[in-house]
Amino acid sequence: MMLHNALDRYHDRPSSIHDLDPRVKVVVTLLGIFSVLLLPDGAWGAYFLVWCAVLAVALVARLGVGLVLRRSLVALPFALVAITLVFTLPGRTLFTLQLGAWEISASDAGLVRFSSVLVRSWLSVQMAILLVATTRIPDLLHALRHLHVPALLVTILAFMVRYLAVLLDEVTRLLRARQARSAASAQGKAGGSLLWRARVAGNMTGQLFLRSLERSDRIYNAMVARGFRGQYVTINPHRMRRRDWMALGLAFAALTMIQWLGRTLS
Amino acid sequence: MPIVHEPVARCVDGWGRPAPDTLALEVEDLHFAYPDGHVALRGVSLQVHCGEKVALVGPNGAGKSTLLLHLNGLLNGGQGSVRVMGMPVTTPNLPFIRARVGLVFQNPDDQLFSPTVYEDVAFGPLHMGLPEEEVRRRVVQALTQVGMAHYADRLSYHLSMGEKKRVAIATVLSMHPDILVLDEPSAGLDPRARRGLINLLRTLPITMLASTHDMLMVRELFPRMVIMDEGRIVADGPTAELLEQTELLEAHGLERL
Ligand SMILES: Nc1ncnc2c1ncn2[C@@H]1O[C@H](COP(=O)(O)OP(=O)(O)OP(=O)(O)O)[C@@H](O)[C@H]1O
Ligand SMILES: [Mg+2]
Questions:
Q1: Is the same domain home to A153 and A64?
Q2: Which ligand sits closest to the CA of B214?
Q3: Which residues from chain B sit within 8 angstroms of residue A233, using beta carbons?
Q4: Could you give the residue ranges of the DSSP H alpha helices within B101-212?
């Protein structure tokens, strides 16, 4: 089923990064993102170093630089929201725009802040991509659990992952049922009128909601039938080895150094 | 046909003591209406002895699934009583009952809710509070029983229907139930997967009650047959005999083979 592929961001490769304890990867990713967000504006040298580190990890994980870059583009539209910074921060005026009755001017400080926000969010997204491309979802969930993320939250995430696939199947089925019945007659054009299609879409959403509701009921029954009493229990499959500790230490040292460089250089 | 030695079912009472003469299931005058007022069971009585393999047949809407859900205490509140291994199905007894009765739902997508096959099969034993070693042992054992040992790390939603069905059965086998209750086990399977399932069910040394529309499977696998219609049991007897009564079968929407 093709839709499932949209869920699986994991790329199976034999590599030392894939092999690391998922907890290490989660912790390092979170530290990395925080560290990047804490870097001052315009610390271009430090940004570049972070990017080099990201690329290095991608290479060691044999993911290919292209994959990481391509996937990281999803973040750009969100980061563009920060464009207002260019026009709201005080500083030397670069140019002025005339918008009807308003006149807005771009400042140099604003431009630096905006580009920094853009670069930092883009770097953060690349780190997250590295994490999910090298760690299977069940391992990620376990890691979260062992890092003392509340059990309820992890359980909800686990169900989401599991049933997104089922839900997508349901959507495919409904779409197919609609398609099969939107045949063209000799005169009319295929697919029916816009109004008709809108109505069908509305009905389908309702159907999907009802089916999901009933399904959630049945799943809960299946859990209770196997002894579920409100507490989710998992087996612990993870053990920290020497190389896990070493990777953790290395990442920590690199992040500290980049942080220090970013603050002294700018 | 190869000769198959059917293993003998383990017979213990609700407290785990050996009891060869205990009734595995004892349903007495059971009534049930769904919250929307629809009456699904109108006085069902049924006894299943330890080690029996019983088929539950009848037209759509006869109340088969409703009855099966009562055996695990998932539905209750109507008149009548249900006993499992001599133990009444009441709220304080539910944890024991659920370890005894392995209920396999009709749709495996409802049953497989964990990310991986391994975790799904481990779910039951873990929630019975067994130690980790024992859980792992049982998972391997159950997966081997259904021939899915090398699927442990697979993601449930990538499996085919037949594979999902097998894993769904493994998820309850790992709890070492005394009674296996299956809702339409062969529905939606291709001939080969169906054949595999029948062979699997034949070799399991457990008391079995299965609702189904698959009369060929009934004839092959279940020596006893119970016909339900409109919330009542209308016939109960040896499969070979009931399958001869054309009028009876036709009156309840069943096909003679
Ligand atoms: N959740 C529900 N709410 C209301 N009525 C229900 C519910 N589930 C089932 N019913 C009704 O109860 C009756 C018995 O349903 P049940 O699912 O037990 O039938 P069944 O014998 O399993 O049928 P099938 O062979 O189609 O699976 C049906 O008439 C059905 O419409
Ligand atoms: Mg049913």
A1: no
A2: 1
A3: 126-127
A4: 108-111, 117-127, 132-145, 161-173, 191-203
